[in-house]
Amino acid sequence: MGIVVENVNKKFGDYVALDNINLEVKTGSLVALLGPSGSGKSTLLRVIAGLESPDSGKIFLTGKDATDQDVRDRNIGFVFQHYALFKHMTIRQNIGFGLEVRKMPKAKIADRVEELLELIQLKGLGNRYPSQLSGGQRQRVSLARALAVQPSVLLLDEPFGALDAKVRKELRAWLRRLHDEVHVTSVFVTHDQEEAMEVSDQIVVMNQGKIEQIGTPAEVYDNPATPFVMSFIGPVNVLPVKSEQVSKFQPTHEQNGKGDLYIRPRDILIELEATTTSVAARINRIINLGWEVQAELVLDDGQVLTAHLTRERFNELDLQPQQKVYIEPKDTKSFSLDYSI
Ligand code: ADP
Ligand code: MG
């Protein structure tokens, strides 16, 4: 196992930042820590790194108990949101820095740096200074610098957080491809669910210092363990079953609770004709989202919900505001009463 976190607790004063965390990261895999700001992601990463010590619990790195090991002895590579490149050094010198410190022979350093420049697709830019690169290029250099010393574990804390949306998207895809090449055990912190889905093998969803769920992107999306996970992973309608109209929806899963009904906007089908299982609704508002259309619907008892449909389906139905339609959920979920809001 690459990384094992066992019963880790961490408080800052009275504030519980990590609440009994247990986690295993397989050797060579890429795991995302996903959660809102303040959920404890960075604290967990820092505890794994040895930058923060846990109040209780243990950290194992490549099978060895590292709980009391100094950060410098853990053989960890880091990439943070804010470029920590040395401004007065060239890209080549930045990448080779860790190897210089370790007194690797000059010729070997030069070879390794060339290899890394190629890996990050910046061959030819090695003599530039960080200020002569774009933000995205600088983050690639940070990654190369972290990988130079062949760390056993790579930790990335919102590495693309400061970049604009387009570059961020490009770098995600790039990071995934890179990881498929180098296979270093990696933990990637993000608050962006799409980023976590695209990049990682496993997602660890965190909330208020606790792990809510661990699973593949598909597992977390298809079988969210808690209302929090379901709401965090994308937009969702939370409908009270005490609404007379909502109670007419046919459950598509075995209902494991009597609490609210959770339905994703994309899982609401809109029809023009009634069926034995559909429920009447009125279209209140139509919002064009580009390739999707969002319809705000109102049930007869005033309950409001949101549906998303493809532009193609929208045109086919020729929907108009105030039109009467019939809706049917394709997928509903409920959670045990402990969780109801
Ligand atoms: P995230 O990375 O998910 O946004 P953090 O792990 O940074 O969350 O922080 C979790 C909580 O712990 C936050 O409420 C934060 O204010 C608190 N916290 C983090 N580091 C410290 C610290 N060194 N001292 C006091 N509180 C801290
Ligand atoms: Mg953070």
Q: Write the H/E string, N to C.
A: EEEHEEEHHHEHEHEEHHEEEEEEHEE
What small molecules does the structure contain? adenosine-5'-diphosphate, magnesium ion
User: Mean of the pLDDT scores?
Assistant: 92
Q: How many structural domains can be distinguished in the coordinates?
A: 2
Explain this structure to me?
The protein has 341 residues and is α+β, with helices and mostly antiparallel strands. The model has no long low-confidence stretch (mean pLDDT 92). It has two domains: 3-229, Rossmann fold, CATH 3.40.50.300; 237-335, Nucleic acid-binding proteins (OB fold (Dihydrolipoamide Acetyltransferase, E2P)), CATH 2.40.50. The strands form four sheets. The protein has a six-stranded mixed sheet, with helices on both faces. Helix 2 (91-101) packs parallel to helix 4 (135-148). The protein is built from nine helices and 18 strands. It is 27% helix and 30% strand. The structure holds adenosine-5'-diphosphate and magnesium ion. Magnesium ion (MG) binds at residues 41-42.
Explain the layout of strands and helices.
Blueprint lengths: L2 E10 L2 E11 L4 E5 L6 H9 L6 E6 L2 E2 L10 E4 L11 H11 L4 H14 L15 H14 L4 E5 L7 H18 L2 E6 L2 H7 L2 E6 L2 E6 L1 H6 L4 H6 L4 E3 L21 E3 L4 E4 L7 E10 L3 E8 L4 E7 H7 L6 E6 L3 E2 L7
Parallel strand pairs: 3-8, 3-9, 6-7, 7-8
Antiparallel strand pairs: 1-2, 1-4, 4-5, 9-10, 11-12, 12-18, 13-17, 14-15, 14-17, 15-16
Bound molecules: adenosine-5'-diphosphate (ADP) and magnesium ion.
Adenosine-5'-diphosphate binds next to strand 2 and helix 1.
